[in-house]
Amino acid sequence: MHSLQCALQVQRSLRWGPMASVSWLSLRMCTAHSSLSSTTCPNPERQEDGARKDFSSRLATGPTLQHFLRSASAPQEKLSSEMEDPPPYLMKDELLGSQRKVYLETYGCQMNVNDTEIAWSILQKSGYLRTSNLQEADVILLVTCSIREKAEQTIWNRLHQLKVLKTRRLRSRVPLRIGILGCMAERLKEEILNREKMVDVLAGPDAYRDLPRLLAVAESGQQAANVLLSLDETYADVMPVQTSPSATSAFVSIMRGCDNMCTYCIVPFTRGRERSRPVASILEEVRKLSEQVLQLIHERENICKQIHLPAQSGSSRVLEAMRRGYSREAYVELVHHIRESIPGVSLSSDFIAGFCGETEEDHVQTVSLLREVQYNMGFLFAYSMRQKTRAYHRLKDDVPEEVKLRRLEELITVFREEATKANQTSVGCTQLVLVEGLSKRSATDLCGRNDGNLKVIFPDAEMEDVNNPGHRVRAQPGDYVLVQITSASSQTLKGHVLCRTTLKDSSAYC
């Protein structure tokens, strides 16, 4: 087998997530961490140096990323924005929103934010209007999360609150319609329809195209649901409509679903199998974003020196039970490689406290991983058993709730201690910050993000403008400013602003 093929097999055998795959591929060609037999990757120790040199030379002389992007974008099909034909039991005008107002609430992960933008894009083309006022809404749609029991309980509580509003509107000429979208609709369709008769519409993550029809059916007084999952990319030709047009950043989704089937995770059952968007579709969405973003990609190798690298546990035994596909040792080696490749990189991670069968020793190993890696950001949760998962069918949720919560508190405490240490290395440094807007905690401070995606707080004060010497300005959202860091906590950096600058001019100061 060719060395490059062997490298791809190693990467696949470890089953890193999409983000980590590239890093792992560049880390090793044929290593002892591989699950491949000697017949698949013969004599790895003797061939490793040669394989690395061969692969490096191919990277140097082979086609570039731009080559593939140009090739992929050439045969792109024209993206259709026309409304699909209605089903035989509906007239075409019944699919139209007729200026009805939609109120959208988003819960959970960034994918749900993107799903909200997709759903709104579809409804907007059907003639619906968007409102931020709950009281004037004709349709209320909740984009839901099902990753943990607490996330679902939040939605049940919200439905209880909305029941009062819907009851008041029963006698209205325009009755209120309520819909549940996303993962919770997919996972709990029958329970929602039976338990909450006030819910009119259910749409799973792959059914947002069907929202106009579902809402039309709901207008007749019937409950309407579509939770069918697709094996193909569902929204390649749907251009998301940003919910905050003035935002200084945007997420571009390139894939949906997951094939990894970790024992604790409900995602493959709520979002389906992994599938990717066509490159042409991704490029079309990026072209709609600010030209400054394209210029930034051209000028800088890394737009943001931040990588999210979910660990979930520091115990190899627990990682095996989770079917994560890697050991603690392999994970730590990848961390070292990333930090060698990207000096000053900011790392974030996910951790689960109290997974099935987790012992105190396993917990101690997770604590030690937090101390060893010293993450800048973290997302830590107590384990919540999910129906349909492998863990639900094969493992016991045998860690008492009070033990889960105690371990979670210990992980949070250690994370904050280590994140504070990591972030304090920035004190005294001058950093380039992208201004996002006013701080949520102070009307006299501004908030922004540095190159590691860390939050930076600084006073809203006049400053010099590098491009206009002698001219003093105040920072606006979307501006780049230089901030000298004066203090740091586990979550935030603070400092005082020096001047407004540009990406091009900032390198002379940072």
From TrEMBL:
Pfam families recorded: Radical_SAM (PF04055), TRAM (PF01938), UPF0004 (PF00919)
Gene3D superfamilies: Methylthiotransferase, N-terminal domain, tm_1862 like domain
Residues in MTTase N-terminal domain copies: 100-220
SMART domains: Elp3
Record keywords, A-Z: 4Fe-4S, Iron, Iron-sulfur, Metal-binding, S-adenosyl-L-methionine
GO cellular component terms, semicolon-separated: cytosol; mitochondrion
Coiled-coil segments: none
Iron listed as a keyword: yes
PANTHER family, per the entry: CDK5 REGULATORY SUBUNIT-ASSOCIATED PROTEIN 1, MITOCHONDRIAL TRNA METHYLTHIOTRANSFERASE CDK5RAP1
Protein name: CDK5 regulatory subunit associated protein 1
Organism this protein belongs to: Saimiri boliviensis boliviensis (Bolivian squirrel monkey)
Lineage: Eukaryota, Metazoa, Chordata, Craniata, Vertebrata
Gene giving rise to this polypeptide: CDK5RAP1
